[in-house]
Amino acid sequence: MTEHIGDFLHYGTIALTVGVNSIGVGLGEGLTSRAALKAIDIQPSAQNDIARVAILGTALIETSAIMGVTIAFYLLLGSKGASQTLPTSIAEVGIALAICLSGLVIGLASSFPAREACMAIARQPFFADKILRFMLITQSIIQTPIIFGFIIAIFIRTQAANISTIPEALTLVASGLCIGLGSIGPAIGLAVFAKHACRGLGINRNAYNNLMSFTFISQAIIETPMIFALLVSLMLIILPSTPTMLSGIAFIGAAFCMGVGTLGPGIASGKTASAACHQIALKPELYSSISKVSMFAQGLIDTCAIYTFLIAISLILLT
Fold this sequence. Notes:
The two termini are about 35 Å apart. This protein is mainly alpha-helical. The protein is built from 13 helices and no strands. The longest helix is centred in the N-terminal third of the chain and has 38 residues, at about 5-40. It has helices at about 5-40, 45-60, 65-80, 85-110, 110-125, 130-140, 145-160, 165-205, 210-240, 245-260, 265-280, 285-300, 305-315.
């Protein structure tokens, strides 16, 4: 039984990368379809535009599922039916964490702007093209966490084939845990912001230019904690040469520190920018002062992520 633990972890990782991501994607697509039907009921004359937004939005929601399937085939074809060593199989748990945690959240979060865009077209049917363009931009940026998770998963798989000890495996698990856990807060923040930005277009289409420029800057700030998580994940893959069991445990601690540290800043930054979006839509003449206050507040919120970044780096370099 003991000799099959590695095989159980290997095939369990393959199953989870597809199964868990499908939960988020399925729920997200269902919610988008429901919103589209409700919007058509409100504004039947815009049914073609609403259907186009729903279809394109659903296509982008599929990104997480496609990433999961790609990784699953990569693992399956890479093993060619042969048994994996225990350290390699443990390291592959890091792949599951990198892909599943981010994919589950992104699949569901991607539906936020798609649903709100459908309702915005119901309120502003003659502004459908610009609402569609706006939704595609915000929804594309929301996919960033799963892309980062995919990159880290490929790195982990490459490194896992060459390891032979449990501490080395723990190091790769920590890398996947860091990017997976670190994606959740910023992904939720990006989705909440995109939802309110699309709603703002439905309230006041004349605020389009202001909302567009504010969106680029705000989404970059919301993503900042996730960039820190990506850097820590890459450091865990690149820097340690011959980790001990103690340092392997410390790396898991560093991953938890950085991953949990992005939850609050990511969500809070998104909520702050959302409130600013609502005010810009209501009072576009106050755009300059509203955007300055929002960005200042978001900058202060991100200091919490900087603190956890410093501790995570210290755990990696000093143990």
